Structures are given as structure tokens and as C-alpha cells.
Amino acid sequence: MIDAPQSWPCEICSKPSVPRVHDGCTDRVRQNLTALPGLYRELAGALHPGRRGGAGRSGTRTAPLPCSLDALDLRARGGIEGILATWSADLCEREGWTLPVYGTVETAVDGYADLLATNLLRICDEHPAVREFADELRQIVGQARRIITGEKPPRRIPVACPCGQVLRVTLDTAGARCPGCDVQYGHGELLGLPLAERRVAA
Ligand SMILES: [Zn+2]
Ligand SMILES: [Zn+2]
Predict the structure, then answer these.
(1) Residue ranges of domains in the chain
(2) Distance between CA atoms of 42 and 148, rounded to whole angstroms?
(3) Could you tell me the distance, in angstroms and rounded to a whole number, from the CA of residue 66 to the centre of ligand 1?
């Protein structure tokens, strides 16, 4: 076809794309941006295992606690906040906007993540370093998730399908297909199955 739209390497994944960045690549950046405020809060649980902390006071450096220093780093000013603030400052400078200033690290994470998500299409269309932006977000999201899941792995619950097959699910499992009888279960249906006795492997 002569009029086939011209494609270029996507600025994020390098595979051929008609838009400057694939919609799917843009969506992944958006998912990471929108996940960060929640991950920031979840990291508070990794700081003080067994206790769900409220918003911490920022700016005080006290004696080291028996906690995850990595979680502490990500929650400090310059951690998750630093990455979002740096890219927000860059966006505002390019657009001639005033960079919003926030009183706490937590409100800054919320505000900057929202600012970047709101302007994500602009960034994907125009920013020369969009790949670096996407990479940094993916890295910090991965790092946060590993800390959170490493400290508190989701509990796997063995449930029994009527066919006899035991499925191991977590409260986060969206759905699963039983390998025994090929029935597809949704989240609620899986959690409604009877608990299975754990069997000792032979
Ligand atoms: Zn792409
Ligand atoms: Zn089954």
C-alpha cells in the first residue's frame, strides 16, 4: 500500500510505531505514575513491619530504626519524590509554568505524579528524554514493589476445585484457570472455593 503511514522507532521501546510513542508504551508509563502514590504509602508498612504508619513527619533524621533502609530512602525527600519532582521541574521549565511546591513529601508525590500523568501525552509527543523518563519510573516502581513484596509476600491460599485439583491463590489473584478441569474462575469464585488441605510432596 502506497499510503501506508510512515512509522518510526518508538521513543520508548524502539519497535516501529506510527505515533512517536506507542499507546501501549504510554499506558505503561501512566500505570507506573499512578501506582507511585499508593506504593509510597505502602512503603510505610515496610518501614515499620507489623504497623501501618500514618503520614510520617518529614525532615527529621533520627537514629536508625530496625527497618528497611531501602524503604526509608524511597520515602525520603529525593527518593520517589525526587524523581517525580525532577521531571516535573523539567516539564514546567519547558512549558514556562510555575513548579508547584508541596509541604510534605507525601503531598509532593501525589501532586507531581498527578501533574506528570495529566501531561503525559505532551511528554510522549515532545520530550527528547521520554525513554529516560519511562526507564526511571519503571525502575523506581519495580524497586518499591520488590521492597513491599519482599517484606510481606502475599499469602498463598490452597483452594480445592470440585475436580480435585488444588489451586494456590492470593487475595490479589484476579482469576485462574483450573489445570485439572479447565474451568475459568474469577476472583470472587476462586476465593469462594473450599480450602484444601496442604499435601506433603512425595
Ligand atoms: Zn513502544
Ligand atoms: Zn478443576
Answers:
(1) 8-151, 157-192
(2) 7
(3) 42
